[in-house]
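Go through this fold for my students:
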Amino acid sequence: MGATQVQVFGTKGCSDTRKAERFFKERRIKIHLVDLKQRAASKGELRRFAQKFGVEALIDRDSKRFRSLGLHQAHYGEDRWLEILSEEPLILRTPLVRNGSQLTIGPAEETWRGWE
């Protein structure tokens, strides 16, 4: 991977985000952690992931925040979901990991190993 820097979007309280952080640190791969509780991912950044995986893959329908917002019965288009996800980052499935144009959602160690 050389001098690349992997960008990890997640929260410090998320065990999968901590696993991703540990995975890259153990391999001495520089990471830039974006704590979604402090700074939400931009709509453009989320769109990259949605274009590859679909907006549904970004939504953590099991999250407490998702339920508390009453979104479990919502039927929105992709643009509206991206807007909601950028405003409510705690309903994102994390970690979102970006290495250049390579992207993953959730724990994906097998894919990350291929980046080494």
Observations:
- The radius of gyration is 14 Å.
